[in-house]
Specification:
By secondary structure, the protein is mostly helical. It folds into four domains: 135 residues, Response regulator (Rossmann fold); 83 residues; 216 residues, Serine Threonine Protein Phosphatase 5, Tetratricopeptide repeat, CATH 1.25.40; 89 residues, Serine Threonine Protein Phosphatase 5, Tetratricopeptide repeat, CATH 1.25.40. It is built from 28 helices and five strands. Strand 4, helix 5 and strand 5 form a beta-alpha-beta unit. The longest helix is centred in the middle third of the chain and has 21 residues. The mean pLDDT is 92.
Amino acid sequence: MKLDLAKQSQLLIAEDQALAKSHMKYALDQLGFQHVDYVDRASHAITALTNQHYDAVICAYDLREDHGGYGLFEQLRAEHTIPLTTGFVFTSADTSPEAVHAIIELQPDEFLAKPFSVNQLDKRLFKVLRRKKVLAEVYEHMDRGNFEDALDAIDAFLIEPRNAEYFPLALKTKGDLLLLCAHYHDAKDFFEAVINVQDFAWAKFGLSKCYVQLEEFDNAEKTVLELAFNRKTMLPAYDLLSELKIKEHAFDDALECITVASDISPRNISRHQKAHQLSRITHDYKSQFDSAKKVVRYGKDSIHDTPDIYLAAARAGVDFAMTADAADTNNIVKQTNDYLRQLKTAHPKAKVNEQLHVINARLCYLQNDSDKAKTMMEALNLDHWEDKPAEELIDTAKAFHEVGLQGNSIKILETLELKQANNGDNDSLLSQYIKQEKTEKATIALSPRSLNNAAVLHYQKGELTKSFEVFHQAFKIMPKNPAIALNLLQALISKRGAPQGDTVGIAKLIKRCRFSIENAKLSEEQQVRYENIKSRLLQVA
């Protein structure tokens, strides 16, 4: 039977190392495969898969040309070039945790560590080919997006005793299909029934996803935390925990979870993009810039390499510079300008002049040339601005606000918020950020860069109430900045002498300030100042 399957199967091998290719050819000859094509570049593999059907692809993870094996499989999946009826096997000499996690996340059908024996290839490859053959009808429905038909097909498959060898895979596939069909109550019952028989991790993940969709958040968190403490399931568990925290609007916790997952497997672009969105909502400007930089680093020369990733990095750099200490601003601006240069090099024909105009206006403002920045923004062409991408409009709103054209800023954000609502996109991270920006721009007239300076000036003039109010505004949009937190505590102590009025609100504010300070790296002067402030807080408590 094995020999017949080998003779019938069409294989594609993507390998660029001569010795590895020679070993592969020898092994496949020994196993009886007769229809084998070899390519040494990812682009050639894409061409081959576009032109004909293969039963399996064996691909080197560390292809040296084009996007590598990782980028190849990612592109094949994204563009639906490879059907589910085609098996995909990764081979890799790199078995570092980073590489292994990256491969596992892509979910190939098998993984072989180099060097491997003929027997190892025999066992893994034939297992993949047989699975694809017996579940072909299910996979064909799934490739066409007919998930309900696929569900019917998998149910028919599961009642046949002769298919018992493949029941574990078929059960997992059924769980995936129930989720794809949004049958969450049925899926919940199914996963619970599976777990009662055998404690499969995939069933626990499926059950957790059902809990999230059914808003049973306590059950979801309990189940996911169990998975997070297991090294084998830690990565997807932190991803799911992040989704749960987003549902609960606990954005700081969501960012912490997604950051842990990103550190475990740094090549996942969508995870860095989610971290970027969460960082904006939580006003963590450093994390925002770091996440945007990682998108460029890992997305370069891949399907993710678009003008948008460079623009996002530059905008995040400007946001960070607006809120950073003066000593760090020049370095951040330098990095920002470097991403703009990279954009021009990677995409010289990109039509991004208006977006660059806004970024350059913001950079002028950063360099204390606010008059020029305002002139640039007043000269901006706003014809058909409602049709522009959301990220471009958000950056434009920020620029208008920074140069004092607050009305223009709020108008853009109000229009964006309405557009998101009309699209049924009220709960996305982007919508949350637009709402937050609109509220902050409407209630806080000054830019982040101006707030602290204005508050210090009020403090020096003895205008303690006004100083406290402005420092409080600054802390709302820069809660991770220890210098702002120190200034706010100083103003609070000077203004009140002893806590009065809303003592609960004051206590919460003090706690948030102390958390920000104690989780930051302080200079020697800041540390001394903080010790003095703590002593005064104890005296007035």
